[in-house]
Amino acid sequence: MKTLIISDYGVKLRFTNGVFIVEGKNMKEEYSPINIDQIIIATSGVSITSRAIRKIMLLGIDLVFLDSWGKPIGRLYPSYVNRTVETRRRQYEAFSTDKHYNIVYQLIYSKLSNQAGLLKRYYYITRLSIVKEGYNEILSIRDRELEQVFLNRGNIRDFNEEIMKIEAEAARIYWSVYSKLVPEKYSFDSRDQDSSDPVNVLLNYGYGVLYKDMWKALVLAGLDPYAGFLHVDRSGKPVLVYDFVEQFRFIVDLTVLRLIRRKWEPSIEGGLLSWNSRKHFLEALEKTMDTEKTTYYTNTPITLRQAMKKSAFQLASFLRDESVFKGFIWEW
Q: Per residue in 250-271, pLDDT tens?
């Protein structure tokens, strides 16, 4: 998949003579539509001609608009969706059935597995004993506490509360150890969505970008992104996206670590990533999703971005009683 990222202020996107043209002061670049599957507009200072928008829709190119924090605020994507009416009916019904427990369990099981997997990978890189202790603790929580809550489940509300307590316990360990992998100059002590330190800003922005891929995968699978299972329903909030993203958050965590441990220093302006840093981080994140492979769902390796789509379609199939659902665990 080829993603065109536009993050420079004051540029224009137009379509002429069979190609997309991005132009601004002292720059002009041409892109063949054959090589583009997605266009991300990562700044408010971009203008798009109506002809370009029409071509984007006709070609089925995914057009995504991000705010300054990296969260998707609007998009155009191909109109085809898979068995939407039937899937959504079964999705709403599943909230009060055993499927609810299975979905939540699988999502958090995979999240903890991937957290432990990332720490394990960096233990072999750093040989820090605290990192090894961290991934073993998370695996212990997964295999004992999470399993016990699932086996002894009561009503749905109590079950969700217990699951979120376990998730929080694992997160406390994970971020404490993760901070040891971050260079000291960043002063990163823990995960804090409201913090303006560079690492938390990168994580916030990365998760926002990840939401747009989750949203697209769920909608194309025929699912309602606003009807979740674990996170509390809130008017206007895509809670299924918040549920579903848990199994793939490691993509952002891994990309951030790779960048800052390789001496890249993001620029923060007013608590937000600068345009140049935004572009660099987006390109790195897209590269992780489009070049890292997995055989978790298929015998033939597929990209992590393709795995997101596979997972969404598997969830939809599970809701229609056509298959099982397993949360995604990368081969660390």
A: 999 999 999 999 999 999 998 8
DSSP states along 65-90: EE-TTS-EEEEE--S--SSHHHHHHH
Per-residue confidence (pLDDT) for residue 77, from 0 to 100: 66
Which pLDDT does position 70 carry in this prediction?
79
**Phi and psi (nearest 5°) for 143?**
-80, -20
- Reduced to 3 states, what is the DSSP secondary structure of residue 163? helix
- The separation between the first and the last C-alpha atoms of the chain, rounded to the nearest angstrom, is 23
Strands of the chain, DSSP E:
3-6, 11-16, 19-24, 27-31, 38-41, 46-48, 62-66, 72-76, 268-269, 272-273, 293-294, 302-303
Task: For residues 197 and 84, give the distance between their C-alpha atoms in angstroms, rounded to a whole number.
Answer: 42
Domains of the chain in sequence order? 3-66 (3.100.10.20), 84-319 (1.20.120.920)
In a 3-state reduction of DSSP, which class is residue 198? Answer: helix
The answer to whether 68 and 204 are in contact (CB under 8 A) is: no
pLDDT for the residue numbered 80: 59
**Alpha carbon 159 to chain centroid, angstroms:** 25
What's the pLDDT score for residue 216?
87
> String of b and e for 110-138 (b: at least 16 CB within 10 Å)?
bbbbbbbbbbbbbbeeeeeeebbebbebb
Instruction: Give the C-alpha separation, 146 to 39, whole Å.
Output: 39
Mean pLDDT for the chain overall: 92
Low-confidence stretches of the chain (pLDDT < 50) are none
- Predicted TM-score (pTM) of this structure: 0.84
Classify 181 as helix, strand or coil.
Answer: helix
Q: With beta carbons less than 8 A apart as the criterion, state whether 251 and 110 touch.
A: no
> Per-residue DSSP letters for 87-134?
HHHHHHHHTTSHHHHHHHHHHHHHHHHHHHHHHHHHHHHH--HHHHHH
Please tell me the predicted confidence (pLDDT) of residue 72. Answer: 78
